Amino acid sequence: MKKLAIITSHPIQYYAPWFRYLANRADLTVKVFYLWDFGVTKQVDVGFRQSFTWDIPLLAGYDYEFVPNVSSTPGTRHFWGLQNPSLVSQVKAYNPDAVLLMNYNYASLYRFLWNWNTRQTPLLFRGDSHRLIAPTGVKAWLKRQWITQIYSRFAACLYVGKANYDYFRYHGVAEKRLFFSPHAVENDRFLSQAESATHQAIAWKQELGIPEHHAVVLFAGKFEPKKRPLDLLHGFLDADLNDVSLLFVGGGSLEQEMRALAAGHSNIYFAPFQNQSLMPRTYATADLVVLPSYGAGETWGLVINEAMCMARPVIASTHVGCAYDLIHPHQNGLKFPAGDVSSLARSLKEAFSDRQRLQNWGEKSCNIVSQYSYTQATQGLMQALTYIKEVSLDNSSYGEVL
Length: 402
Hints:
Elements: E1 2-8, H1 16-23, E2 28-34, E3 43-45, E4 50-52, E5 63-66, H2 87-94, E6 98-101, H3 107-115, E7 123-127, H4 138-151, E8 156-159, H5 162-170, E9 178-180, H6 187-192, H7 194-208, E10 215-222, H8 229-239, E11 244-251, H9 255-262, E12 268-271, H10 279-284, E13 288-291, H11 302-309, E14 314-317, H12 323-326, E15 333-336, H13 341-351, H14 355-369, H15 374-390
Parallel strand pairs: 1-2, 1-6, 2-5, 6-7, 7-8, 8-9, 10-11, 10-13, 11-12, 13-14, 14-15
Antiparallel strand pairs: 3-4
Helix pairs in contact: 1-15, 8-13, 11-14
């Protein structure tokens, strides 16, 4: 039996079900170490500009403990937001066979990396960064050297998709030390609620005032610059689609500007932040889900996973990490060049040019995302654990490039 410690920033609605899944394995013992309590205590989410707690269980079904965070401004939006002086001692007390880190770019985690004896207990890392926008210049070169040194501390790395794999290789992680552990959501929860969510969506659509005969384009998330909801709004207006409405669900810093632009257009609607229990209904309301993000911040885009679980066709920009794994152009959706509003408008027109084909794309989405589940994520983790057990590597060889 392998004894695994997992260190992550805070309870996350996508990770907690995976931890429960891991805890149910007979060949693995897991304990999660949290560095902050956001998500399980009511706090303000800066992106959504409101306070909430997630309404699905995040701490049930697996072993965990919170590591005291002494930061004066706790959070994950800045380097000093996670300061946990007792982290090393608490993980040592658990006496794991290996430690999996889900983040590293915070004060506590750097301290952990430099103080942990990797020869005695190896480290694994699961990340989702990409280089879809490749930086250049001296600063970029120096950053590459630094990140390469960070990754040399890990015996193996888990990559979530193609763009993330390329990122690890660019930073010197040997191919043999990379294991596919895809980003996933709680697929079964969405699938089991599909029928009831469809009935709920009919009523919600009526409450929102969207005409019954209208198809719906959905954006669900934070109304913030990196998500580019304004690109979708402009693209939707340019596309000038018949019998199609645009629905924005969420909140954030751009909301006032978005509402001002939408004023006078009767087929654009807004709904407030929807907690996790209401997301199946949210996606069931849509005929197409769009994620137009721009920049390096959209490392994956789990909203696409969720939408695909609900058999929805999807459109995403080329800066969205998951677009290279989950979107098969003209099979379950489309990709467009990030920031290109005209291309987005053309993609919307193409999607709605054949309504039956659009529905077929949604069914294909459900098939594709079935291979991005906690089962596949766990397979990669177990392969990595087997690898580091079988291969005795000294720390200096971890950064080897093949």
